[in-house]
Design goal:
single chain; mainly alpha
């Protein structure tokens, strides 16, 4: 924000007598979103000036077992619906659900993961191997044809 806007906002908050949640947050760093700031040691009376331990990332417990149980449940349900002569509709509905469940929203991306569509990435950063219009034009117009 510009300095004038920040001053007006400070005057508004002072006149109102309250502060917003964002005003109590520490100032944001100017680093790009892909880089994380180094964790600082917290010096408090409870830690004795020692750095806080960084918790290990939690992994899902036995993902292969969970996947096998899901596939087994789906196969049992398919057999049940096939016995009821509804196997094909169950299969089609299953495929539609898998397509829906396989697509994730932009809020569900992991930190640092880029979208295949560069307009959704910070700074419109393309992923590796993206063919741009400029690259295609350069290759078509300025490169000699093979075998000539």
């Amino acid at each position: 924000m510009s300095a004038a806007v920040e001053q007006r906002l400070a005057r508004f908050r002072a006149a109102r007598g309250t502060s917003s949640f964002a005003a109590r947050l520490p100032p944001r760093s100017e680093e790009p979103p892909g880089k994380a700031a180094a964790p600082e040691a917290s010096e408090g009376p409870d830690r004795g000036g020692q750095p806080r331990p960084v918790p290990a990332p939690t992994e899902p417990a036995r993902p292969l077992l969970v996947l096998a149980l899901k596939v087994l449940l789906w196969a049992v349900l398919l057999a049940l619906f096939a016995e009821l002569e509804l196997g094909l509709p169950f299969f089609v509905v299953s495929l539609l659900y898998w397509m829906y469940a396989g697509t994730r929203g932009p809020g569900e991306r992991r930190p640092g993961e880029l979208s295949a569509y560069s307009v959704f990435n910070p700074g419109c950063t393309p992923i590796a191997g993206t063919l741009t219009a400029e690259q295609l034009e350069r290759e078509l117009h300025y490169r000699p044809a093979a075998g000539r």
